[in-house]
Specification:
The chain is mainly beta. The protein contains one helix and five strands. Helix content is about 10%, strand content about 30%. A hairpin with a 5-residue loop joins β1 and β2.
Length: about 110
């Protein structure tokens, strides 16, 4: 029996699929890298609110590599998305953040 474990996928798309009609808004990080917000909710969320969320993620410098884990630990798993929630209108959605992409998903 081998101790080796397969490498986890490092591509966010490998572990997450987009719905038909998912909307993608593009942006640019402070480091000049392309970033995007994907509305994968299926609810056709208002574009103005999505742009505001994308801009606030960029301003908070949440895209790219960080030197500390958001969960407070001393280990950073680069292939693992961080999850939070966001309220849009009267509904809560899951917000998943991975290096240069954020996704809004239904709970």
């Amino acid at each position: 029996m081998s101790d080796e474990r397969p490498d986890p996928p490092t591509d966010f798309e490998a572990g997450s699929s987009s719905r038909d009609g998912a909307r993608v808004l593009m942006g640019c990080t402070h480091a000049g890298k392309a970033c995007r917000l994907v509305d994968n909710s299926g609810d056709a969320l208002p574009e103005a609110e999505l742009r505001e969320i994308l801009q606030s993620l960029i301003e908070a410098r949440l895209f790219g590599f960080r030197s500390l884990s958001a969960s407070g630990g001393n280990a950073i798993r680069l292939e693992q998305a961080e999850c939070a929630h966001v309220q849009i209108g009267g509904r809560l959605y899951r917000l998943m953040l991975h290096r240069h992409e954020a996704r809004i998903e239904p709970f």
